[in-house]
Amino acid sequence: MSLIYRKRANAPSLTHWIYDYYGEIAPFAHRIDRKFALVPLVLLKTVEWGIYRWYRTPIRRFYGVKGNELIYMITRRCGDRCAKCGIWKNPEPDSEHLDLGCFLDCLSRLHENLYQVTLTGGEPLTFADDVLRIAEEARKLGVPMVLMTNGALLTEKFLRRFGDLRHVLVVSLDTVDPTKWEAFRGRDHYERVMRNVALAREILVDRLRVQSVLARESEADIVDVAAFCRERGIQHTIQPYMDFDGSWHGAAGLRVSDGPCAARKNICIYPNGDVVKCFDHRRIPIAREPLGNIGREDIIEILCRRRATEVSCVMKSCNLPCKQLSCNVPVVLESVPA
After folding, report:
1. How far apart, in whole angstroms, are the C-alpha atoms of residue 136 and residue 151?
2. Is pTM, for the whole model, over 0.85?
3. What was the pLDDT predicted at 59?
């Protein structure tokens, strides 16, 4: 299977090299806070890219400082029954839930290469104690953390501890219309979530974000969500809808990025410890099976395998629908129909 990517027909073109270079340099430059250091650091990064572009070690894309995002789907369990999402339909049994120590070991092994660790689900706060343990370890290792939540299980005790750790909380809101809430979320807890958002704003201040999913079913509501956030000084982001076994439909007019897939440098962990580059990359034939499992293997050994490099290589030039996600094409409010 690996030999198929060595055929001359698939040899990189000049355009491919340009996309590859831009995909490495653009996110790196974006993370440089001190603008006077931008040019020298970009030049050094260019030298590094040139070395790894021509000297093809198995983990050349894993090398570098703060170049990867670690994304942990800590659970598929969720108390909501959102129409946009089907993850909650297949909760993992206790026997298939990764031991927390295995993830903490993975985080420790990778932390020098991570610019961020993201916890998602399901609903991560189903395991609130584990989330705080990970947040504490991330803080100790100097890795910023982002926690995605539906907001229903937030408590003042959790928020104050999380706030002390200086991480970012993202609450998912696709509508602020109480008459549509239950249809969107499958639960009648509008007042509770709104109270929790207000409490999170008070405690976390500018480390609270709100994210909305842009779909045909939600596009009329997203302008109102944006206004709700603007009035409260909350940063609002939009993520295009992707089908994770839900019943919603993608919004029209979204384009697929022309550049290399940004997710090729991700390191994603499923609730059972399976490692993939992207939660949607199983659309790629060579990536249908996980790269390994951190419950049984060391993460560095998994990422050093030939297939991990081959999957990243294929992801540079693929144009699957998931390339419309905001990691590749940030969606601004002005692009959403009013």
Report:
1. 20
2. no
3. 47
